[in-house]
Amino acid sequence: MNIIIDYGVGNLDSLKRACEEVDFQVVVSNKIEDIKHASSIILPGVGAYEAAMKELNNLNLIDMIIEKANNGIPILGICLGMQLLYEFSDENGGYEGLGLLKGTVKQIPNFVKVPHMGWNKLFFNKNINLLKYVNEEEYVYFVHSYYVDSTNEEVVAFSDYGVKIPAIVNQNNIVGMQFHPEKSSETGLNLLKAFKELCLYDSISSN
């Protein structure tokens, strides 16, 4: 069972439709029992970091997500969901995240327009199976005011917005997309298709 976690901070219907368009059958749920038996997890999200983490805590899902990740279950974080995978966010005075990836979420510098909203190109850092259906410099759709600051070892693809914005990250079974694949036309669908296939048949990070 592939679970999209519903914790009240994402456009779940459009994400579910996008997954189903590439024959990735998903269930939207926030029930611990469903997530306990999940074969993959998608963590979407928009809005404030602190509010999202508090809601995951209220639903008693934090330990379950971490346990599933540590057991090798594929995890995909989207937009805010990707940022929650990291250790800490500077937003609103600072708040701890899930800590599945090392790094801090910081505000995009104000020498560019914030939020970063609209279409931007992907530039590849690595060649992994997740990218097999997309080409470098294809466009994806972003809506965010914060970005990940890390060693970049986990960054698969980035976008240029005055600073390098980590756009796709991957470490073992953990994947993040800062943009919204469900709003990114054919490119986004192709990334979801690749994630589906890698969950079913292959290793996410294999070349």
SSE order and pairing:
Elements: E1 2-5, H1 12-21, E2 26-29, H2 32-36, E3 40-43, H3 49-58, H4 62-70, E4 75-78, H5 80-84, E5 86-89, E6 95-96, E7 101-107, E8 116-121, E9 123-124, E10 139-144, E11 146-149, E12 155-161, E13 163-171, E14 174-177, H6 185-201
Parallel strand pairs: 1-2, 1-3, 3-4, 4-14, 5-7
Antiparallel strand pairs: 5-6, 7-11, 8-10, 9-12, 12-13, 13-14
GO molecular function: glutaminase activity; imidazoleglycerol-phosphate synthase activity; lyase activity
InterPro entries: Class_I_gatase-like, GATASE, Imidazole-glycPsynth_HisH
Protein name: Imidazole glycerol phosphate synthase subunit HisH
Short description:
The chain has helices spanning 12-21, 32-36, 49-58, 62-70, 80-84, 185-201, and strands at 2-5, 26-29, 40-43, 75-78, 86-89, 95-96, 101-107, 116-121, 123-124, 139-144, 146-149, 155-161, 163-171, 174-177. With 207 residues, the protein is α/β, with parallel strands linked by helices. The protein has a single domain (2-201), classed as Rossmann fold, CATH 3.40.50.880.
For the record, the CATH class is Alpha Beta
- Summed up, the domain count is 1
Strand content: 25-35%
Looking at CATH, the homologous superfamily is Class I glutamine amidotransferase (GATase) domain
What is the makeup of the main sheet?
A: 8 strands, mixed
Spans of at least 5 consecutive residues with low confidence: none
- Average pLDDT figure: 94
Please give the number of β-strands. Answer: 14
Protein name: Imidazole glycerol phosphate synthase subunit HisH
EC number: 4.3.2.10, 3.5.1.2
InterPro entries: Class_I_gatase-like, GATASE, Imidazole-glycPsynth_HisH
Subunit structure: Heterodimer of HisH and HisF.
